[in-house]
Amino acid sequence: MLGMRQRARSLQDKAHRAEELLKAAEAIALELGGVRHVTLAAVTERAGLHRTGVRRYYSSKEELLLELAERGWGQWRDAVLAEVGDRIGLDPVQTAAVVSTTLASLPVFCDLLTHASLHLEGDVDIERARRYKAHAFAAHDEIVRTLDHATDMTSSQLESLLAVAVLVAAGLWQASHPTPTLASLYEQEPRWGHAALDFLPKLDSLLKASAIGLTAATPPCTGASSWN
């Protein structure tokens, strides 16, 4: 029994330390303007851990950031559940607003959407990539089911709306958070500064237009959902 308690305590301590590293990485990304500024040295220093100790929890910076992206999917799911609550009868514009506001409330996740598909998924071993995909798809499916109960949009339309949301959010976040070099360039050449978009208003506008277009192109039908 003593051995089992010690093992449980050890596992609990390890989980707690891993969570501290994730929080440190997220805080650095928020403070410095993106995950591109996150380094293992900075993360371990913020978490109060020796820099060689991080390898006990994450084999690389890429694995740590992929873990943060995985958690982001769960946070987005939870944000949608909270935002929808017991509401029903949402029209396409209201549905798009739920998607845009909840997604924009997670800036580090929006940033990571670019990095995850660009290189993080490919820079970890296959089992770690499998776990990320499994959790991401599970969260995605729960978001679709939640919205499906609250809106007249079909599950197929909702899947398309989420696909647009992820792709647009990933690109817009990068454009609306330029590097210092680009920010200086936009000050010198204001006509090029259109790329530095105001993130939430533009995301919201594009998703509302997409939701309206999706429902106009494929109006909802009665009967069973096309999901699954």
TrEMBL record:
<dbReference type="InterPro" id="IPR041483">
    <property type="entry name" value="TetR_C_34"/>
</dbReference>
<dbReference type="InterPro" id="IPR009057">
    <property type="entry name" value="Homeodomain-like_sf"/>
</dbReference>
<protein>
    <submittedName>
        <fullName>TetR family transcriptional regulator</fullName>
    </submittedName>
</protein>
<feature type="coiled-coil region">
    <location>
        <begin position="1"/>
        <end position="28"/>
    </location>
</feature>
<feature type="DNA-binding region" description="H-T-H motif">
    <location>
        <begin position="39"/>
        <end position="58"/>
    </location>
</feature>
<keyword id="KW-0175">Coiled coil</keyword>
<dbReference type="Pfam" id="PF17929">
    <property type="entry name" value="TetR_C_34"/>
</dbReference>
<feature type="domain" description="HTH tetR-type">
    <location>
        <begin position="15"/>
        <end position="76"/>
    </location>
</feature>
<dbReference type="Pfam" id="PF00440">
    <property type="entry name" value="TetR_N"/>
</dbReference>
<keyword id="KW-0238">DNA-binding</keyword>
<dbReference type="InterPro" id="IPR001647">
    <property type="entry name" value="HTH_TetR"/>
</dbReference>
